[in-house]
Description:
Oligomer: single chain
Distance between the termini: 58 Å
Shape: flat
Amino acid sequence: MKSQNEQLNRIFFPLDIVIIVLSYMLSWLFVIYWSDDIGVGVLPANIYFAALIIIIPLFLVLYAIFGLYRVNRTFGSFTEFTRILESNVLGLLIINTILFLGSKNPYFYNFSRVMIFTFGVLNLTIETFARNLVRYILKLFRKRGFNQKHILLVGYSDAAFKFIDKVNKNPGWGYHVFGIVDDNHKIDSDYRNIKVIGKLSDLKYLIENNDFDEIVITLPLGEYAKLRDVVAVCEKTGLHTKFIPDYGTIIPTKPLTEDFDGMPVVNIRAVPLQNLFNRFIKRTIDIFGSIFGILLFSIVFIVLSIIIKLTSKGPIIFKQERVGLHNKPFTMYKFRSMVEQTDEEEKKGWTVKGDPRVTKVGAFIRKISFDELPQFFNVLVGDMSLVGPRPERQQFVDEFKETIPRYMIKHQVRPGMTGWAQINGLRGNTDIEKRIQYDIWYIENWTLALDIRILVMTIFTGFVNKNAY
């Protein structure tokens, strides 16, 4: 039976060739053939299309390097888009570098750079659309029971339960959990109707007499002494085997590993923003982004300042101490949305629905998050970032660090104006533990592409806050 990789590559590989040629042909038509300047210093068509001999394999190799031919049923559309974008940007850079280095040759010198750029845009657009269409069709088939991947779980544990929950939540992945093998639970014990079908001693027999695609080891932590024997049985069958550790709350989702003279070492906490280059990139984006935000909303700043001053007594800008990077306090700015209060009154707690302290203007600007706009200045001076966990007051930090596991990890990065938790609906008066889970996932999985995704989603979905009181 052909592997899923081979089957999908039979679709994607020729499809990519067709898309590259189509995008290139359309760019030639738009920029060269239909141009008013055709015939004036323009290279003949055969020269342009001869370049496809280099361009087609170049882009196919880049797609392979960026993992577009590695099958992952759990890929999201945005993840695939970023890989296509990175491939195309690098491809255009390579092509333009070749043209620059060979600029003494008249063919290279006169080769249209505008056409190459147009090709890149068209190729990115068509490739993204085509791959999403194919994956959408595949997900529809999987939801209807086709193209399933049959899984056997080894171990009745929290790791197994989380795996089953995610499979049930995402039928488009096409995973079918056949059953669980475990020594500590009776046959026919079940979780979400997935039953225990045997003991570990039955593993070899079950594999040989069933058509499984994958074995997923989900042994509970106390059973790890059996792990070596389980892996040995699985490897003898030749089946693809995965291991989901039962200490997922301890290690990050993408652990940083090191080779310690042949001994694998897993870092308990991997924070991409501890890398100097990553911090430089993020800070650069923050500086330019905050300046752009201040200029973009300058009229809003003026109008709101006047309205707040005319409708209630007190300062226009509300200042409050929050806890930021490395647990250091900083002054966070907001447009004042409540009546002026003493320090003791402020410390009473979060605002609630119908809170009498909130002004009429304040209720409106809180609902659309415009009260947060002055934080662009916090970002500019370096107290905050455009994207990151929301900062809390010291009193809540002192409370949550004692009651919520791993809470203090959020202070390993700058707090943000918006964040992964916020665009997923966890704003205002919402489950703080779940919010922290989202914050930690962001910290451990940070990429520039993820920040861009959060900013874009904030623009389209993140301003209106139904939980703002």
